[in-house]
Amino acid sequence: MNFTAAVIAEFLKGEVEGNPETSVNDISKIEEGKPGTLSFLANPKYEKFIYETTSSIVIVNADFKPQKEIGATLIRVNNAYESFAALLRLYEQSKPRKSGTSEMASISETASLGKDLYVGEFTVISENASIGDGVQLYPQVYIGDNVKIGEGSVLHPGVKVYEGCEIGSHCVIHAGAVIGGDGFGFAPNQDNNYEKVPQVGRVIIEDHVEIGANTTVDRATMGATVLRKGVKLDNLVMIAHNVEVGENTVIAAQSGISGSTKVGENCMFGGQVGLIGHINIASGVKIAAQSGITKDIKQEGIVVQGSPAFEFGPYQRSYLLFRNLPKLREQINELERTVEELKQ
Asked: What is the pTM of this model?
């Protein structure tokens, strides 16, 4: 289907600069633009490509000032990235939606099933599970006993949800994620062996949460591990038992949160961030990639970096010093030799 620049600009509440009848039927990255496609420019690092691209339409920020002539028709908007994301969501929603239940699925007679479901091949829905309207369970999904899934949620192939866990409405859980596996609970005994501590809690995932591929969210020892509304977890994230993650917090890949840690709302964690257990992180905290958090962060909105982490500004200044430590050591050694020579 073709869309003109005028139609796209109307949807995005933007302004056309160029031919409003220019049409597109696909999207492309600006550096790989092709005629008939739509691209966007948000990061100044990619500005050079807008002068070279053959994309027919490019979405740009309203304050963008070109340094050269541009061949594409422009659509100026308040935020190019958000506008392009809105178009991608519209495109995603326009794709055909799967529906129906495969004959090769295994569904307990005691399960409660909503309307307009999709249940793929070799998916298992266990006893007393409750599945809301419009839920999509792709092939090889496992739903344990007494699991509850809210309306409109999507579980991609191979997701496993252990017994008693709850998933809210309009959540997305990507392939291979495991929800409700046992927390890492072991106690040493007199024989210097480790006895397993039964994990009898559950996982509660609130509405509009997205969980990446091969991410794990462990069940609580007692009570619940909780992901609040709007949380977004990247691939390969590990959430341990009894952790609570506040609303709209986002956590990038390969990060891990140890048991019983509480994270506030609207936090942002970079990749490979690690938190020890039994600490509290205030709301709005930003943690730079590969940082290690070993104690409470009580100040809201602070940015930290390092392992152990401390404030971003002092860390950056300190980094300039400790990266030069070998050079400074050589200078000190030279000074000591000079002083020794003078003494002699």
From this structure: 0.85
